[in-house]
Description:
Blueprint: H1 9-12, H2 22-32
Amino acid sequence: xxxxxxxxxxxxxxxxxNVLKRFERVEVLKKRGEWKEGERVVGLKKTKPEE
Length: 51
């Protein structure tokens, strides 16, 4: 049985994701200077992916 084209991963690697993982959000906040070492990672600010 063949795989439906919408399930192929090659096309999804080129699409920019809208949602960041927690460690990615922390990295963005560090670059902006909005993250202090030792802060909790729960309840982070909303961030948009860097383009």
